[in-house]
């Protein structure tokens, strides 16, 4: 079951160089949130600070009535058990096979017997479609499989909060689509609070309930997916639509002259594209945190761009891969279900 994470006034610097200041946001319990931002804006530092691997300069992180930066190392060790973390490369031990990697946290942090451990490891490997790959070493499987193994390991202690650091880095678009579907399905099954750091705009547009954007040392915006995807705020609009026009430059913020030149040349951001439907669980059952499409816009008097929430006929997530599916779905039972059935029969690629 997920828990709420409340961040207030969080500030972090290294050697006097600020990374970000005064971050305020709440990750709602059981919901999926995505954190975006240009490279080097401190998204990974934020994840490490949340889980207590880095201490902030100041500010609060409230979880279940405890303020993490104020806890002793011993108390922090206990709170860390609420977290599961999927690191960028899966962070697997190269000399251990997949089974032992996934079993590792259970052997380290619990007193369970080997037969109890086997039951949990088998369940989690099944969840991520890796039954049959137990004896393989990390070097013998693909990058996508390593990510899924890392995810199984992140889930074995039944975390209330799961942090994903660029789960799609290094994956091709098809593997990314499968991983996104897996993330949605796992959120439905576990009800845990998910926070995903990604650079993949398609993931950001179709997977989360909430989106946050760190820019220039601050949180530019954090809120429901529809709020950011319908926002005309320049930084949000430029980033979420992957445009060159706008305040974000190649290496840093554009200066006033560059922006004036853009304006003088009549270069403007294109109109907002339609808001795509949110990816739905593959078993057709809604997630607990799911909201009806268009609800946020309707409640806030915002007219979404024309064509919003229609099932996208084109684009990287269309076709036989598990792309965004609006409910009720008219899509034929997709390949993901067949694939999951394959995996349950022990078939891995
Ligand atoms: N342990 C550390 N000591 C000193 N500086 C650090 C440390 N960790 C991160 N930094 C610095 O903090 C800044 C933010 O780094 P971080 O990796 O969090 O960015 P990011 O937004 O995740 O980047 P990317 O999107 O490229 O992965 C960088 O300038 C980085 O060099």
From TrEMBL:
Pfam family, one: ABC_tran
Gene3D superfamilies attached to this UniProt entry: P-loop containing nucleotide triphosphate hydrolases
Domain of life according to the entry: Bacteria
Disordered, as annotated region: 268-349
Keywords: ATP-binding, Nucleotide-binding, Transport
Domain ABC transporter: 5-241
Biased composition (Pro residues): 270-279
Gene Ontology MF annotations: ATP binding
Protein name in UniProt: ABC transporter ATP-binding protein
PANTHER family: INTERMEMBRANE PHOSPHOLIPID TRANSPORT SYSTEM ATP-BINDING PROTEIN MLAF, PROTEIN TRIGALACTOSYLDIACYLGLYCEROL 3, CHLOROPLASTIC
Taxonomy of the source species: Bacteria, Bacillati, Actinomycetota, Actinomycetes, Micromonosporales
Basic residues composition bias: residue spans: 340-349
């Amino acid at each position: 079951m997920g828990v709420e994470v409340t961040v207030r006034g969080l500030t972090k610097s290294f050697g006097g160089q600020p990374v970000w200041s005064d971050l305020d946001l709440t990750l709602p319990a059981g919901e999926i949130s995505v954190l975006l931002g240009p490279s080097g804006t401190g998204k990974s530092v934020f994840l490490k600070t949340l889980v207590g691997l880095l201490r902030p300069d100041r500010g609060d992180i409230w979880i279940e009535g405890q303020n993490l930066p104020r806890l002793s190392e011993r108390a922090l060790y206990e709170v860390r058990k609420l977290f599961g973390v999927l690191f960028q490369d899966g962070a697997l031990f190269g000399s251990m096979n997949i089974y032992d990697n996934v079993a590792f946290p259970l052997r380290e942090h619990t007193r369970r017997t080997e037969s109890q451990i086997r039951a949990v490891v088998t369940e989690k490997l099944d969840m991520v479609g890796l039954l049959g790959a137990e004896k393989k070493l990390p070097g013998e499987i693909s990058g996508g499989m390593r990510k899924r193994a890392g995810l199984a390991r992140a889930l074995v202690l039944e975390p209330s909060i799961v942090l994903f650091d660029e789960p799609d880095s290094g994956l091709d678009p098809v593997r990314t689509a499968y991983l996104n579907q897996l993330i949605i399905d796992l959120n439905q099954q576990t009800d845990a609070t998910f926070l995903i750091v990604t650079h993949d705009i398609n993931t950001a547009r179709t997977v989360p309930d909430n989106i946050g954007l760190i820019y220039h040392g601050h949180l530019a915006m954090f809120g429901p997916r529809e709020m950011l995807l319908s926002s005309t705020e320049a930084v949000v609009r430029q980033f979420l639509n992957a445009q060159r026009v706008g305040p974000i430059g190649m290496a840093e913020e554009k200066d006033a002259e560059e922006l004036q030149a853009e304006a003088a040349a009549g270069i403007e951001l294109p109109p907002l594209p339609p808001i795509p439907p949110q990816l739905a669980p593959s078993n057709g059952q809604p997630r607990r945190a799911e909201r009806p499409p268009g609800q946020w816009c309707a409640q806030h008097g915002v007219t979404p761009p024309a064509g919003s929430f229609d099932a996208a006929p084109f684009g990287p997530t269309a076709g036989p891969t598990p792309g965004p599916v609006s409910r009720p779905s008219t899509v034929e039972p997709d390949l993901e279900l067949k694939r999951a059935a394959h995996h349950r029969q022990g078939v891995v690629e």
